[in-house]
Amino acid sequence: MDDIFEKELRKSTVFVDRNVLSPHFVPETLPHREAQIQALMQKLAPSLSGKTINNMFLYGKTGTGKTVSTKHVIDKLMAVKKKYGASVECVYTNCRILNTKYQVMLKVAEYCYPEESFLGFPFSHLFQKVVDYVQSNNLSMILVLDEVDKVKNLDDLIYTITRANDELAAGRISMIGISNNINFKDSLDPRSKSALFEDELVFPPYNAEELKDILEQRVKLGFKPGAVDESAINLASALAANESGDARYALRLLFKAGEIADEMGDQKVTDKHVNLARKGVENEIVYNVIKTLPEHQKILLYAIAQLSKEGGHYARLDGTVAENVLFTGEVYDRYNRICRVLGREPRTARWCKEYMNELEMLGLITTTLSGKGVRGNTTLIRLAYPAQNIIDLMKKQFGE
Predict the structure, then answer these.
(1) 4-14: per-residue pLDDT in tens?
(2) pLDDT value at 317 more than 50
(3) How far apart are CA 111 and CA 139, in angstroms?
(4) Residue ranges covered by each domain of the chain
(5) Domain 34-202 CATH (choose: 3.40.47.10, 3.90.25.10, 3.40.190.10, 3.40.50.300)
(6) Do the beta carbons of residue 352 and residue 381 sit within 8 Å?
(7) Which of 112, 98, 182, 108 shows the shortest CA–CA distance to 143?
């Protein structure tokens, strides 16, 4: 048995540093995000001299560099703070993991008072401790809320953070919200919206050439010299460009291709390894996305998958039929039926429309307007992945 471990240490590998291929790795330079980084730095720079900065929201599809650019800028901000002793602090929170206002505020309080325990204290106590800390140190406190739209009681959290400054005689609390959904603010309470006073920054998808530059940078850092064919980099870049310009997808694809090359005992990553990696990476991404969806978005996707499996189609007025295309009405009816079976209170049709927009943003479905040849105007829905795969996953999620 011990020989298994020894073989692991002795076997050859195409990698030098696997961590470089992680989406969490923050390189010294970020290709093709110079404009966004400069804009973000300009917005945050006044915090170093104690000046008020606006709240900010960063938007863009998955894998467009929002998080890594923000971490890059925050790292630079903290380096300057350390050099000059500026009164500024930053707290980063992944709201997909800490997805309630209590969990977010608990993390901030623990950052401010690392030697104290706050478990069991109410939210109001945590909030007051944070306010006291900011005021007593005359701080500019910047809260980075990644995937901010995943916070369940987001209205309360945003309103609390933005109104905190009314209680501060010294210091300031500001927020950077990061989201894949550019429309998420539409669902906020009017009082939360009115309190925000935010700036916005959009991160566009990468094209194939930009993705190639990103992969070439990581290949130099993460792989042995000459261990990756240029054609493999080109293929991974092209595939990722077709997946909405997702750099995370490109990095995961190249990483998986390297693992496959190691398993096969090959000394170089080629197109063959990238093509073999493609299916596994796509399934992994879809699984991770679906697993973390809010419950009612899961139910809606389940309804779409069920109807698609049953052979959903619609007939145009000219008699032609489009297979696996669904009407919003039939999807909403099936969603309601599944809610009743699961003992959940169904949401309104307006909310389901928002859920569909978010599912489309994540690439799980595609929607189009019905156009000519259909009575009335409606939205047509098509599932972007095999229905049975999604049904199987949903059955596990809902314990069926």
Answers:
(1) 777 767 778 99
(2) no
(3) 14
(4) 34-202, 206-290, 295-397
(5) 3.40.50.300
(6) no
(7) 108
